[in-house]
Task: structure prediction
Amino acid sequence: MLSKLTPRLGYLAGFVICTLLLAFALYLQYFENQDPCPLCILQRGAFMVLMVLFLVAALHGPGRVGAVIYGGLMFMVASIGAAIATRHVWLQHLPKDRVPECGPGLEFILRKFPLSQALDKILSGSGECAEAGWTFLGLSIAGWSLAWFVLLGAFAVCLTLLGVRVRR
Result:
């Protein structure tokens, strides 16, 4: 089965995975009443950027240089998403007395502060980011996001190596 994997099919699979992850996030938000905190929204943004990169790469079917560029961009976005998710997981594991107080919503922060200050405030976290809410197999949403960012980053590297090898 893996011998039939082409870079283009791999990019399409990455697109489908990101689409399903975002669809599940929307399901949790609208049907399970799991309102996203600011860190969750940043993670969704990273998944959206990954989804677009995978789709563009699938449609483009890049050569060797393009495979390296797409792979590098995908790995970079997955790494940023993993860093955000790691911060989120860390906040969720703080002792109750160390959890920061709840802050204003993302929309308010983005309206009132310059982008660099807004990102600093968002990444510092708030009480709502420390709540685990939904869990599956012992992992919170942030834990699953971290796992998926790591997997998608590794997958992007594998697709890059495959794209370089196939196009020799």
